[in-house]
Structure formats: C-alpha cells, structure tokens
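Students often ask why we bother predicting the structure of a whole assembly rather than each chain alone. The short answer is interfaces. A chain on its own may look different once its partners are present, and contacts between molecules only exist in the joint model. In this exercise we take two input lines together and write out one structure for the complete complex. Read the inputs first and try to guess which parts will touch.
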Amino acid sequence: MVNLEDLKKEAKTVLEEGKVKYIIGYEKSANGLMPVPGFIKSPEEVEKLIWTPACVYNLTKFLVDEKRRKSREKKPDERPVGLVVKGCDSRALVVLLQEKFINRDDVFIIGVSCEETGVIDEKKLIKKLKGKKAEKIEFDEKDNFIVTTQEGKVKIAASEVLAERCLECKANSPVIYDVLLGEKAKRSVDNPFQSLEKIESLPERERWKFWKEQLSKCIRCYACRSVCPMCYCDECVADTINFAVTADTTAEEKAQKIKWLEKSPVKSENFVYHLVRAIHLAGRCIDCGECERVCPLDIPIRFLNKKLEKDAKELFDYEAGFDPEQPSLVSSFKDEDPEDFIR
Amino acid sequence: MEKVLDKKSFPQWVKKLSSYTVYAPVQEDEVWNYEVITNPEQVNLDFPNTVLSPKKIIFPQREVYLEFSASNEDGLEVKEVLPEEEPSVIFGVRPCDARALTLTDKVFGGDFEDIYYWKRRNQVALVGLACHTPPSPNCFCLSVDGSPFSKEGLDVLMSDLGSKYFVEAFSKKGEQLINPAKTLFKPPTEKDKKELDKNRTEAKKRISRQIQNIKKIPPKLKGMFDSSLWDEESMSCLRCGICTYLCPTCHCFDINDEIFSSSPLSGKRIRTWDNCQFPDFTMHSSGHNPRQGKASRLRQRIMHKFQYFVERYKNYQCTGCGRCISRCPVGIDIIEVLDKVSSYEG
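Now the answer. The structure tokens for the assembled complex follow.
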C-alpha cells in the first residue's frame, strides 16, 4: 500500500530542490468524500496532498492547460511540472509523449501504484451505502476498502465498488515515472473486454436501439470531451469557434462556413458529436473512464471507446499508452496490417 | 386552500387530471428527470434531486422559432412556429426549482416579454414537494433566501406527513387542479397542522451546508473583477458546461439557422441553450473573444448570480439546489468559492 507520507516526502523534496515549478496532485476537498485536483506550489502546501481510493481524476488533463499557459508567457518558467499519476493516467501521458504533444522534460512524473486494487466508482459506493454519507475512504488490505460514515466504519469488498475500468485494468502501476511509490503489481485480468460482451451479443437492431436511446439523452455539456486528456485540439468541430475569420472575411462567407454539427441536442447531431469523439480516440484511448464518470446523464460512452480499443488490439495487435517510442496506431503502417475491409 | 390527501389516493388524483399533460420525476438507470407520465400509478415522489430541473420543460433546450423555405420565385416563405397551447402540470417540483422559475420570469418578462417562454409558463401548473430531508447533500437553499418549504412560484405544495400529504393551494391554477378530485381531499386536523409545523422546523435543521456572510458578497464582488482569486479557483475547471446546463436559473441562449436544404433553401431558426463556460460564448464575429481564459468564465458565473443579477433584480440568481456542486467533474464548489470571496483580502 502506498504510504501517503512517502508521497509527501517525494513532493516536498522536488519542490525544495526547485526541480519542479509546481505539483499537480490530489487534495482533500472541504466537503465530502471526493478529493479535488490540487496545485501544490510550495513545500509547505505538500501537507494538503492525499492518496485514497477516491483519487479518480486523470490529472494528465491539466498538462494541456499548462502547455497553453506556457505558450502565452513571454519568459516562461522552463522547469517541469510535477504530476501524480496512477497506472492508467501514466498511459495517457505516454500517448501525449508519443504524439509529441508534450516533451518528456516538461513533466516530472510521480507514479503511484494502485497495486492490487484501484479507485472507486462514486455512484456504486453511494448505492452501496444506502443513504449513509461517506466521509472518508481508505485502502485496507488488498480486497477491501474501509469507509468511514457518520454511523461508524464499514468494510466494503473492493470488487463491489471499484470503477468498471479498474476491473479491466491493464496497468495497475505506472508504466512511466521518475519516482514510483508502492509496489509494481499487475492484477491478472482474464478478459479486459468483458464489459463489452453483453452489448456485443445483441443483434444489430437492438444495438441501434440502445444507442439511439442513450445518445438521445445527451445534453451536449461536452464534459466527456473536456475531461479527456486526449482531447487537446485547439479547435473542435463541436464549437463554432473554428471559424477562420480574417479582417476581410465577409458576412456572406461567415454565413457559408460549414457547420459540422448543429447545436440542437437532437439524435442526429448527438450521434455526430459522439461518433466524432469516439473515432478521434481510436488507438489513443487508454480507458481511464473519465468520460463516462463525468456524464451527468449516465450515458455509457466508455463502451464506444472500449470497442475501438478492442478493434485496435484484435486487428493491429496495438495497445495504446505503453511505449512512448512506438509510433501511434493511426500514423503507422505495417505490411501485415489487415486490409480485407478495403473493397 | 389547505387539505390532506391519503398517499393511496394520490394516483387517483393524477388520473382525474386527464385534460393535462402530466410531468413527474422518472428514474432511468440511476438518473431522475421530469418526463411525461402516461400511467398515473407510475408517479413516484420518493426521489432525490433530479439531474435537470423543470426548467427543461418551460425553457426547453431546443425551441423552433420559425421555419423558412424558398420553394418558389417569390422569395422566402417564413412561417412562425409557436409552442402548442396545452395545459400541463408538473408534480414533484422542489421549492428551490420553483423559486428559480420566478427568477427566470424576471428575465423573460418585463418590457420585452419572451413569447415562447410565456406560452409555456402560463400553461403550466407547478405542484411542489416540500423537502422533508434535503434531496442532495449539497442543498443550501436557506443561504439564498429560500426554504425547503418555500411556496414561491408554486401553485400547490405537497408536504409528506407519513401516510398522507398536506396539500396547500396558493393560486387559482392550483385550486383548479384540486377541484376535479375534491372528494379525495379532506380538511386537515389540528394534529396534521402541528405535524407540518414540526416537519418544517426539522427540515431546516437537516440542511447542513451554508454560505457565510452572504449579504456581504454582492458589494464585495463589485471590487473583485480583477482579483487573482478567479485564476486560483478556476485552475481545475475543465470548461465543460455541466454547472450551467444543470442550473435551474441559467437562461442564456443562442439562435442559429439550421439549414436542411441549400437548394431550394429551407431550414429552421432554432434557439438552443447556450453556456457561458464554453470557449465560443461571447466570441465576436471578428474571432476575438474578450472573455478568453477559464478564470474569466468562472468569474462570470459567480458575478452574474451574486452581483449583476442582485443589482438589477434584488435577488441572488441562485436558489441553492446544489446541482453544480454535486455534478462538477472536479469538485468546484460554489459555496467554497463564495466563502473565499467573503474572506478575500487584496
């Protein structure tokens, strides 16, 4: 089990030595169980850091902000940013390195191993506690979490409240790091695509019906896009911001700009949005599951990405986010790549 | 009008309202939302906070303004589209969400009435459900002039008394809902009234979250436009639209022409919700956006609700439902932000 004091010590050391400009980690929130992303700027603030099974966020996303901020500064601080990553988050980092969105020198990676366990699904926990309010959650030995509620402590089997993605995890401990806390461990997962089986077994018509119903619920808050570390485009088809407007662009020309999708949250437009999102993540998604976690309408969008992940594995024997030196799936070609879909 | 209604008789009351379109909270998977009810037995008032407030019925996310087509040589044919006029009733409206509508009324009313909004608003009767226990751990209605038993904006308020509901009607619309089912309602006893009072006192005590020094916040905000607090508090913001889309009082919208055919030209002019947290909100047609970073967008959300709106309408534009807190993907908490505003020095 990762000792929080070790994490604080590492963080304190790099801040004191001035090795990093700040550290992105997990901090206790003023209210409730879930932590908040913390931006630790001084050695004294290190005390705010926490590490619990509720540390769900993929903090890699904040490197996108950092890059933008830095690009606007006249004399930017060139030191790396310290970043606390779990196994899954480290794979996202690998993809960003592969795609040269960030450089290895931009980030000091503080890897935290989930060891034999993982992080919680807050919704599962709330259901499990049946109205009792969780105040604190801790790792116990490998198979349980200890939850403190107002009515006392409860021991809950980890398997009952673990996030879906953790049940199919391929990297319990970080695959890339500068310091590693906790043991390198790999929980054996028999079938990393098990969650897909049910929906894959449905006849095509039923699957169509399923997605029609699910995607019709979407209110296009774009939280699934916003939370995704791979969604770093400066311009997105979902926004009207991608108008290349110059001083002599006429009103007529502006009006004629192609709109890839309309703002109306109707089935056709919602499908365009979700399929664009999913396809853009093919061979890139590392299944941190954040998109599905943040959806206010509980749309199971992780299935879309999971299916593409499975295709990448089965068709091209490709797994995203393990090797920064490996060319990315969509930018590489091998002679043995299947081509029977070309007709 | 004060009555009591046996819980067992509740579906019969709903049945009597067959001339209305009936909305009530419906659960699908883990998500509760207001939907049209076809079977009165289906109405279940034992629900936590719905994800979206009843705003989505009166001010729908998508509204067609007009249809246009150039089908002949005479030019463009334009057809106005107005919401259908049909009486409807929403059951299980939380007092905070009803108060929220009274605030939106101010925005869409006044000198320039929004006909689309009012066509729906005037047709709908709101039947509230008092919050005996807070429907969300992040409820804070007491801090923003609300209460779990507030009747503001409601036509009827139902309060749970165990095996029955205490039912109060405050408007003609409300009485018209009760009249067709008169025989189902009984006058309340003294005991019922006492129990109601007791519940009201207890309900207030169960709300654990509150904003410190709320009265000081609007004047304080006035001097904080350039504060560094916004940079700090928005560090973890992802720029998604959850806080505003789920907010019962947010009402910004966008208007677009959606073209279905370019030759011959036909399409619809459509209003959709818009969101101040999105990167294209406030973007000028030149491409310049005066509200560039996420700090200025968080500031806008707070300023609009606790300064600009207060200045203009004398109310906070927040009713304490807690949705933005509960659903923020990174735990940005409006109560915490406001507490930091209170204690901010500099």
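Check your guess against this: The longest helix of chain B spans residues 294-313.
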